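pasting for the record
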Amino acid sequence: MTVQAPASVRSLAAAYTCGHCNSEPAQLTQDTSGVWRLAIGHDAGCPVLTGAVPDTPDVLRAMQEHQ
């Protein structure tokens, strides 16, 4: 049986965009603790992907759009 992420999680995932590249949400998964995780397909060389800058502003923007 496949468990679908709650609507709020799917909405937040759909609202996420990287401010540094043309990334696309790649996959929503649920870990063994029940926490939903979103894998983002950042472009090669994206400073978020390399860890040079945080993704916090992008996450906050997605949260604001999600409301």
